[in-house]
Design brief:
Layout lengths: L3 H20 L3 H13 L4 H25 L5 H23 L3 H19 L18 H18 L4 H12 L3 H25 L5 H25 L5 H23 L1
Helix pairs in contact: 1-2, 1-3, 1-8, 1-9, 2-3, 3-8, 3-9, 4-6, 4-8, 5-10, 6-7, 6-8, 7-8
């Protein structure tokens, strides 16, 4: 029997899928608060584990949409993602041992820092012809390890860390970083979800509804990303705006809680 919470989970998943495909991040930073404050999951660690699984699968589904549009730099993102998986496994173990009262405020503050960094003006729109090279490979590994560790620690897909990481390491365009980031988002999320699932911290029913909604939202988000990428700096502003809004809400809920 379908319950009202199931409908909320589906609609929340649709919104998360749209944002994930649109800006390459924001999946878990929206999913975890949605599960806690909209769907009504009471255990923060359960919400983190469930969102990690749902966002991981949605990220791989959205990756296909961006790959068809030629927005994925496969060699760069696979090296970044491979290094990040190692970091995510280490970070997830530490995150489960950290109190939610500390975890959530730190999460929100980190989001604000990243959002501010993404608003810094770039000299150009990026190099669309970038390739994996001896010059950018060490940066991709280092940035991947760092993003993966933070992703695992906070139980997030890490797109809002991965997008600026890929740009910083290679100088690729924003749209390419968004498309390419989805591979790492999926890989990091799967690593984190596996760790939480092993501890019984995944709500499989809610995750399934989230995933279903996310696939639908992802199709809409990929189309919108293509449109906004034609307006200089628009994707960066949208990215930062989403991050600021969710971070502010999480800090407010933490303070009143």
């Amino acid at each position: 029997m379908i319950e009202f919470a199931d409908i909320l989970a589906f609609l929340s998943g649709t919104a998360v899928g749209l944002v994930l495909a649109l800006i390459g991040g924001g999946g878990s930073i929206l999913a975890t608060p949605a599960l806690l404050y909209i769907v009504g999951v009471s255990n923060p660690h359960m919400a983190i584990g469930t969102s990690a699984l749902a966002v991981s699968i949605n990220a791989f589904a959205n990756l296909i949409n961006h790959a068809r549009r030629g927005n994925v730099k496969w060699r760069c993102t696979m090296l970044f993602g491979g290094a990040g998986v190692v970091g995510a496994a280490l970070g997830a173990g530490l995150g489960k041992m950290t109190s939610p009262d500390i975890l959530l405020p730190l999460f929100a503050l980190l989001m604000i820092v990243i959002g501010a960094a993404m608003l810094r003006p770039r000299k150009n729109e990026g190099d669309g012809s970038v390739r994996l090279s001896r010059q950018n490979a060490p940066k991709l590994i280092a940035y991947g390890l760092g993003a993966g560790a933070l992703s695992g620690f906070f139980g997030i897909g890490g797109g809002f860390l991965i997008v600026p990481g890929l740009i910083g390491a290679t100088g690729m365009t924003m749209l390419q970083a968004i498309g390419s980031s989805l591979f790492s988002v999926g890989a990091f999320g799967a690593t984190t979800a596996a760790s939480y699932a092993a501890s019984g911290l995944v709500d499989w029913r809610v995750a399934g509804l989230f995933i279903l909604g996310g696939v639908i939202g992802g199709i809409m988000g990929a189309n919108l990303a293509e449109h906004l990428s034609k307006q200089r700096g628009m994707l960066q502003r949208v990215f930062a705006g989403v991050v600021f809004a969710v971070a502010s809400y999480m800090l407010w809920r933490t303070l009143i809680g």
